[in-house]
TrEMBL record:
UniProt KW keywords: Sugar transport, Transport
Domain of life the protein comes from: Bacteria
Organism: Streptomyces pseudovenezuelae
PANTHER family cross-referenced by the UniProt entry: ARABINOSE-BINDING PROTEIN-RELATED
Keyword Transport: yes
The keyword Transport belongs to this UniProt entry's keyword annotation: yes
Transmembrane segments: none
Gene3D superfamilies reported in the protein's UniProt record: Periplasmic binding protein-like II (3.40.190.10)
NCBIfam families to which the protein is assigned, alphabetical: TAT_signal_seq
Upper taxonomic lineage: Bacteria, Bacillati, Actinomycetota, Actinomycetes, Kitasatosporales
InterPro entries xrefs: Bact_solute-bd_prot1, SBP, TAT_signal, TAT_signal_bac_arc
UniProt-recorded name of the protein: Multiple sugar transport system substrate-binding protein
Amino acid sequence: MANQLPSRRRFLGGLGAAGTAALLSGCVTSTSTGKSSSKGAVTLQSNLSAPQAKAAMEDLVAAFGKEGSGRASLNTVAAETFRTQLPTYLTSANPPDVYTWYPGSVADAYAKKNLLLDLDEAWTSSPDLKRYSKALDSLCTSTSGKKVFVPSTYYWWGMFYRKSNFAKWGVSEPKSWDDFLDVCDKLKSKGVAPIGLGAGGNTPWVASAWFDYLDIRINGAQYHRELLAGKHRFDDPEVRKVFDRWQEVLPFFDPDGTAVPFQDATTTLLNGRSGMMLIGTFFADAAPKNALDDIDFFRFPIIDEKIPLAEEAPTDGYFASARTGRHDQVLDLMKYLATAEAQEIYIKGSSGTVLPCNPDAKDAGTALVKKGRKHIEEAAEITQYFNRDSSDALQPTADNALTKFLAKPKSIGSILTDWQRDAEKIWNA
């Protein structure tokens, strides 16, 4: 069906290359010594802290309570705090039951440590989950063969801009890398910072989008996934090409790119002080509702026509602690989160810029969402994101290397040598 992610594509290439270092084997059990209490509501730990996303999660939890199958208690944590604290949550003596997070190799890394609940029962007993695409089924299966994740929505990354600003500046969406550089030139001549970044503060990971996209455009998605799995080296000549190309566009980046977090960079974009920004649709959850109709995006420019078209389209959803004492209640919540009703509640309450995983769920139907769906469907391959295609543990090595490159691009040789050394420590751990 149209709403299903295309199963003919390798939705996560790591899963198409099972057995690589990034795909960590792991049998998930619920036999860990520490467990959460079996009494009370299921605790749902959420990183969806942007105003609209948080409100949508509150609506979702309220609706679950009305279903009569159980109650859930929502605890929303600032996104970057959640990111750094997640391993602590999962290993604590009395962990939260359910978490918002990501499937694929990032979930598999936690499954390897026996931290995630086996969700096979939810997948086999839910009429909704039985109908999810094969791509999603694979994405939510650990390399031990267990289901460890329930997907709810997916979204896309692109070069976002305000239509009214592009019209005012007399520029249009570029189709090629050279067109892109021309647009940057024009914006800079008008006193506008052409490209916003937002890799400062506690969001240095945003810079990984530039690394991901340049790598999949220059070397292809297959190479990119193999690189993140440790099959290639970060100091290989192919990776150096990524940074050679990045240096061409560095003069067009906002000078504050590594000084402010992406939320502030989003404000700069919306206010017209920067022209465009490579970001995921989640940024819209913090944007004023009246700005949404003015937001548009274009595909990250093609660099080599011979490379199969790939796009970043991450999936979001939920996994559960292996230490939960509320096994049955957790499964009830997971099955509810997989329904079309639940996903439509979330889409309605948030900015509506995500696509539902349930094949029967309706998206927001806006022009932006229709364009986003087409954007994903036209891709020959789909990647997730740097940490999602590798592990949360590898992400800090990228943050460190990329922020150093942005500060001292001429030192790229030593930066890549150091990155490889740091990555090897993670891969060999």
